[in-house]
Amino acid sequence: DRWPFYTRYIVAYNWSSVVQVAVLLPLNLLAVAFPGHATLILAQCAIIVLLIYHAYVAYVGLAVNPGTAAGIVLLDVLLSALVRAVSNRLMGL
Question: In angstroms, rounded to a whole number, what is the distance separating the alpha carbons of residues 53 and 77?
Answer without folding.
Answer: 13
